[in-house]
Each structure stands twice: as C-alpha cells, then as structure tokens.
Amino acid sequence: MQPKQPAQFAAPAPRAPVQSPNTDNEFLKYGYPGPISDFMVRSRYAASYNRALRNPSWVAEHLTRDNMKGTADRALPTAPTSPFPEDKSLPEQFRALLKDYSGSGYDRGHMAPAGDAKINMEAMTETFLLSNMAPQVGIGFNRHYWAYLEGFVRDLTKQFDDIYVITGSLFLPTKNEATGKWTVTYEVIGNPPNVAVPTHFYKIILGVTGGSNFALGGFALPNQKIDSKTELSTFSQPIEYIEKASGLTFFDKVDRSNVTELCKQIACTLTK
C-alpha cells in the first residue's frame, strides 16, 4: 500500500540551470520535437502538464487565510454549464478529453482543488480544466480520503501565514515476487487509450511563518480505496524519495537544514 522508503538520502545536489533548446543546429534542421510538458499559469495555480501521460506532472498553489475566502460555487445557476472542459491551450492531439473518462470507472481527480479557488468563479472554473485532472479511484479515495487531505491542507492556513503545496501523479514500481524484478504497471483509459492512471499521488506541503520559519512534509498515497481511519502519517515520505520517483525538485530555494518536519510541528490528523 505504501511505497518502501529508501534507507537514507544524500543532500540534494544544486539544481542545474534550465537550458532553452538551441534549434539552430544541424540535428534539428527540419524541426524541434518539442517538450513533453507544457507550463501553464492560472488564476490560483501554476502547473506542468505531461503530454505523453495526459496528466499534470505537478500543480503548485499558494494558500493563505485571505485567498481561501470566497463564495464561488459551481452549483450556482450562473456557473458555467460545461463541466470539465478540455484545455484548448494545449495542442489538440495531446489533450485529455471528457469522453476519455466516460465509462472508465475513474473519477476526474483535481490536483488543484476547487475548494482552494472560491475567491471567484473564473478561478474555480479553471480548476475544472481536464489539464488539472488525473484519473482517481472514486469511492474511498477521490471522494473520501483524498478530499480529507485537501481539507487538511486548507486548514493549515489557520496555523501558518502561507502554505505552498505541490500536487501531482506518480507511477511507482512494484516487485514481482516470482521473478524478483521491479516493474511499473498502470492502466490507460480513453478511446483510443491515452490517459494514464497513476499508481500514486503526492502532495508536498511547505508551511511558512514570519517569512523565515519553515515546516515541510511530503505524502505519497496509493490510488486506491483507503480506510478513513488510516493515519495520514502512514503515507509520509521523505521529500527526496518523491523527488527521485517523480524526477522533480521541490522547494529547492529552501535550506532544508533549517526546516522542521511538518508532522512534528503540527498534528497531521485528517478531519472527515
């Protein structure tokens, strides 16, 4: 249920500067294949979308007591009538579509939750873009444990001045006991099948007080029904583990030698 933690991690190496591709060379004379990801900034989140998996690799939010206020509600008569629209900012052949989820047995799982974007209807509507979605098990996960975790993150704004949270999908290996080999296996939905179903989802949470006091926690949850009585700490993982698994670097501008573990500073308890 829970990915096994490596014994230890070395301090993360300095992050290499991002290099823009130089397409003026002989190897790319007739075209640049392009990135596999698209970067986007919305009203209440920024994200990187993986074209091959049709999943967000990561979605980043900044939560405060003030920006959690608002009354936007998709149930209002004035709300947009088209639920879960495709993201037309992406090339058409790489978009996730509403029909991909139809009959799949999976929910359209928010990475940036609608509950974090009540400040206005535009912000909330952007959270329903399919580029902010990934297939999640519904009963017991998306509609229950994952929703409790989203509420837990929002409640942290009562204890910290600022909450920065990064959410995304993971594809973790499992061991074949017969062969001893590790493999990554995941379902793909859609017609044709092109939207990957993550094996796990992660949240990285950074709480900031006074601009210089940091608390950091990372969680990796299996994409399956989870008993609501399961302690959140069950899914706690070193940030370095999730970085290695995702190929990403989280909050690299924060000195981790000067950071408190989130669940040692506050009670990591979910409210149902």
Automatic annotation (TrEMBL):
One of its GO terms (molecular function) is nucleic acid binding. CDD domains: NUC. Residues 1-19 have a biased composition (Low complexity). Residues 41-257 form the DNA/RNA non-specific endonuclease/pyrophosphatase/phosphodiesterase domain. SMART domains: Endonuclease_NS, NUC. It holds the Pfam family Endonuclease_NS. GO terms for biological process: apoptotic DNA fragmentation. Keywords: Endonuclease, Hydrolase, Magnesium, Metal-binding, Nuclease. Signal peptide: none annotated. This is Endonuclease. The lineage of its organism: Eukaryota, Fungi, Fungi incertae sedis, Zoopagomycota, Kickxellomycotina.
